[in-house]
Amino acid sequence: MSPDATPRCRYEQPPGARRVFMEQGGPLLVEGPVEVVLEDGSTVVSERFMVALCTCGRTATQPWCDTSHRRRVSEPAPERGSGSSRQRPQE
Ligand code: FES
Q1: What pLDDT, on a 0 to 100 scale, did the predictor assign at position 17?
Q2: Per-residue pLDDT at 90
Q3: Distance CA 56, CA 73 (A)
Q4: Low-confidence ranges of the chain (pLDDT < 70)
Q5: 51 lines ligand 1 (CB under 6 A)
Q6: Which of 20, 23, 61, 65 is the best mutation target for the ligand 1 pocket, counting ligand atoms within 8 Å of the beta carbon and taking the most?
Q7: Is the minimum distance from the CB of 27 to ligand 1 under 6 angstroms?
């Protein structure tokens, strides 16, 4: 068996590889600095050591995460007359 055929440890980072961390329901964390190419072909750069890229679409600072993913989406108000409200009977 050649050394190339040896499976890599799952957590081993190959030399020169950029490491990306995935958070369910949150941003994609990328070791920086990074240059991101946007849909229109323009680029944005971050020099930070760790960059959070929005995957939820709620950020106001695309493509960067602004933690909007943490906000709960409010439940819709129950419909009137659904029988589940606790209103006093009218006199
Ligand atoms: S992932 Fe954080 S705002 Fe979208």
Answers
A1: 85
A2: 47
A3: 12
A4: 1-11, 73-78, 80-91
A5: no
A6: 65
A7: yes
Beta strands in 28-78 (DSSP E): 28-31, 34-37, 43-46, 50-53
Top mutation candidate among 64, 69, 71, 72 for ligand 1, by most atoms within 8 Å of CB: 69
pTM for the full model? 0.66
Q: How far apart are CA 36 and CA 59, in angstroms?
A: 16
Question: What residue ranges do the domains of the chain occupy?
Answer: 17-68
Structure tokens at 9: 């440890």
Ligand 1 center–CA 25 separation, angstroms: 8
26 exposed, middle or buried (CB, 10 Å; 0-12, 13-18, 19+)? middle
